[in-house]
Predict the structure.
Amino acid sequence: MNQNRAATPVAEHTAHDEPGHGSRPTGDERAAEVTAAVRPVASLVAARRRKKAAASADQADRGIVADSDWRRPSVKRGLGGAHVLLWISLIVVGLGPILWLAKAAITPTQDILRTPMAIFPNGMDWENLSTAWFRFDIDLYFYNTLVLALGSWAMQILVAASGGYVLSVLRPRWGKIVHGLVLATLFVPAVVLLVPLFLTILKIPFTDISLINSWWGVWLPAGASAFNVVLVKRFFDNLPREIFEAARVDGAGPFRVAWSIVLPMSKPILGVVSVFAVIAAWKDFLWPLLVLRDPLKQPLSVRLPALENYVELDVFMAALAISTALPIVIFLVFQRMFLRGAGLGGAVKG
Amino acid sequence: MTWVRGGGLSALILGLPLLFVFGMFSWFPIVRAAIMSFQTTNLVTDPVFVGWQNFQQVLADPLLSTAVLNTLYFAVLALIFGYPIPLVAAVLMSETKRGKGILSALAYLPVVVPPVVAVLLWKTFYDASATGVFNTIVGWVGLGPFPWLQDPATAMPSLVLEATWAAAGGTIIIYLAALTGVAPELYDAAEVDGAGVWRKVWHVTMPQLRGVLFITFILQIIGTAQVFLEPYLFTGGGPANSTTTIMLMIYDYAFRFGSYGKATALSLMLAAVLAILSVIYFKATAKWSKS
């Protein structure tokens, strides 16, 4: 569900992207760029090379403001001031709330309520964290979130990698139709799927199986991400076909080619898909709320709003802080991948 | 047999995960949505075809106009708050000589905070008492205290403010990527013609970003039309329905009142409006791009 929701707006990219492929010149450098960005290995290497070239050749690295502009006092003062303002506001707006949360997580309730902007007027209260973790079962919800994220990740990798391989490399006769149908789902807003998908999970058609309260109810729909399939297929399209031919001549079957040649070569794209999958699962709220009714199976995102009603404020803040810590760490570690991915997929995926 | 030897069978086996997952959880539900919107379902007896009844009932719902207006209000406010700021920030960021990486990380940080955490955190910020976080801050300059989420007049802007905070970073990164794609020669040429900084921004940068600006505009509209999390968690639609959005109505139809038919009818109507809007938009902007 979440994947669908996230992928929907990308449809517009694709819509813009396909016809613009060399036929429409105006404003479509962007489209070309998206297409290029979808081939991460090639574009990464190219970008690095370009960066190096830019560094060596002077002037190539320039932006709007030329060195001669910088020497004009009005520009220097105006832009300098604007930059100071930019730094201050980004620190306050971007980091401020997160730092406040970190502070509140170890502040007693009364201090949060009475003097929210004071820094530890009555000392810290580290016990909030352990109270939230052990007494209010944040450990369990954290574990549930991990299970959901890892399962969704595995499902998305399985579907995107095998599907992309079939559509791009094996190319059976029915491949074109399936590819078209996958692309078509990009144009359907997530809202359309919400209710019928829920009823499908409630009772899988032609069976008596219900996936309510089952991890599979979240994992399986997560796999149906057209965005991933398109991303991986495009990546495979750009792998040199001679290698597959050579392997086939040497007697490798389709499974062998997939396992020994394509999979090792597709680490970069699978990395991008992985990071998106884990983060999206971590963020997802509405779908697990609908599918996982049993509080013992619910992830953090679903439990937190419920906790708000019966947990003391300081412990609640600690719970919020714990829920935020891992995504932030993942972001800081994989920063490049995130920022590149956001540039290509749109804010929709972040 | 030739089909098997030609790799037909292995293609089918390898294609199975995709065919199953998409078939069951994407294609089938989409078709089902179209059918369900003409049925009433109570999950116990067989669904009954009722023609356009669901659509008529939704259109006759007195809450619909409120929800549509609220969603429009959210979308317009989100454009006012969230469209120009990332653009200005991205242009400024692209012109810094040092710390560009740190700046983009700072801008993107709110996007990484799980949306539920962001909303619940901001709910604390919006505490209506005089010692709430935001009321303390506005109190420093002698304003407030404001009731924020409790007042129909300020509830929606408060929601949009949080939504903008949570989303702006992503837009900034898109603009930054687009800005690096502007050919430096264009600036050189503009300088030869004697253009200053402002004129370069206006006559070189903006036209070059036009494609991206068009896309982010329509993407934002499509996104805000389906806004759910903020009204659901902040206010639950209140006070006095001042934050009830279309998505919230769909959720209530389906999961509070069990009117699955009405819920799908409304979601199909929303999707149709968005589709028509996108087509018109792309036709119109294609015309502007040419002239």
Q: What stands out?
A: Residues 73-105 of chain A form the longest helix (33 residues). Residues 91 and 97 of chain A are 10 Å apart (CA to CA). Residues 1-49, 51-60, 346-350 of chain A have pLDDT under 50 and may be disordered. DSSP finds 20 helices and no strands in chain A.
